[in-house]
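Here is an idea for our session: we take a single protein and study its fold together. Which protein we use is up to you, so please pick one and set it down. Once you have written the record down, we can walk along the chain together:
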Amino acid sequence: MSLWLLTIAVILIDQISKFFVVKYLYQGQIDIIPNIFSLTYVENYGTAWGLFASFNAVIRVILPIVIIGLLMYFSYTSKKKSDIVFSTFILGGAIGNYMDRILRGYVVDFLDFKVCPVFNFADVMIVIGCILMCIGLFRKEEEDGD
């Protein structure tokens, strides 16, 4: 599967999950595992963990530049399957959250594990992509060092 198909799949899953959250959970909460995990509707006007909420307009301008930078970087990196996977996770998550900012003016978050700020599927993909990228970089350093 190509970079673009995987990226589109991440975006679609993210946007479909947010559609259902907005439609059926708007400003509500459903306890899945009491005191551990809930689906909680949150409007995030900032970046990760709601930081920099007062800079929402600036974020809308900076994010397309970051996304274009990611596209350029990923198009020039190696074509190994692992690189394609982590890049699609990061890119798909970034685009999914950016779409929220453009369409709604905020990002819809809903996964609430009670021990951390509420987040969404796009955030999960970005974090997993970054972890996979770091693992890939460490492996490359080990291979280069041998």
Notes: The chain has a mean pLDDT of 86. Residues 3-145 form one domain. Residues 47 and 59 are 8 Å apart (CA to CA). The helical segments are 3-25, 56-76, 81-103, 121-145.
